[in-house]
Amino acid sequence: MSDDIHKLIIVGSGPAGLTAAIYAARASLDPLVLEGEPSSTTDQPGGALMTTTEVENYPGFPDGIMGPDLMLRFKEQAQRFGTDVRMEKVSRVDLSARPFRLWVGDPDAAEPTYRAEAVVISTGARPVMLELPGEQELVGHGVSTCATCDGFFFRDHDIAVVGGGDSALEEALFLTKFARSVTIVHRRDELRASKIMQERAFANEKISFAWNSVVDAIEGKGSLSSVRLRDVQTDETRDLPVTGLFVAIGHRPNTDVFKGQVAMDDGGYIVTDAGSRTDVEGVFACGDVQDTVYRQAITAAGSGCMAAIDAERWLEAQHG
């Protein structure tokens, strides 16, 4: 193997990517992690936990830990075993032949920035947001995209959930375990969710519906105090006093740079089989970039472990 070809490059540095790095480094694969750039909305270093406040459901932290602090520990552990972590964003890849080629910076450059025998993709997914003023500032202070992660903090609160699909109803039903009330805000007069999920929501006395409505504004200084709803048929507005707003209108995987390179489903998630293997030999995927169901830090970390082990075994088979 040429000295300028890395054994393994990991693209992305959330729980999946850094767990893969820990395992790969301990297996003497000398992994290079390209963690993204702070200004990027698609592959922020540290992943989604960098915008999370207190994490109480990650094992090993009985008193909880702040999301950025948890990711710093992941990174320091990976570096302890020799992982090379670089704050660079991949702009182009060529996975058509080995060694694989990856570009940082100018995607039209003739020569790639890096080459690798194996690649782990762990660029994650981002929730679709409402794109309203003040929304990002209140994430972690009343605005959330994950009921499983944050529901506990909203005990006896009045909460709104935006969306009309299965995910929105699952969030709403879960939140009724803690909330005083849950209002589902949906822009149509009927839900898109499966029949059984609709029946469960309609039967829950804590759940009410704001039909034909969208959130037009988010109010609150330091923490959420209310949302302004607009009726899409009459244009009338009203204020809904809530201290929690859960946005459940979908996720987008951060896979644009890999389109046409590996197999993806209709939603753009990378398709994996037999663990973390993609349809390209030597390319593996882990975490939210291929997980449409769980989207938890602990499941992402687990799949990162799988990807590193899969990559190690694959490389061993290639080189004897």
Automatic annotation (TrEMBL):
- Has the keyword Transport been applied to this entry? no
Question: Which cofactor names does the annotation list?
Answer: FAD
Q: Per the database record, which ranges form the FAD/NAD(P)-binding domain?
A: 7-304
The record's Gene Ontology biological-process terms are:
removal of superoxide radicals
Q: What is its EC number?
A: 1.8.1.9
Xref: PANTHER family: THIOREDOXIN REDUCTASE 1-RELATED-RELATED
NCBIfam families xref list: TRX_reduct (TIGR01292)
This protein is called: Thioredoxin reductase
Source organism (scientific name):
Iamia majanohamensis
Q: Which gene does this sequence derive from?
A: trxB
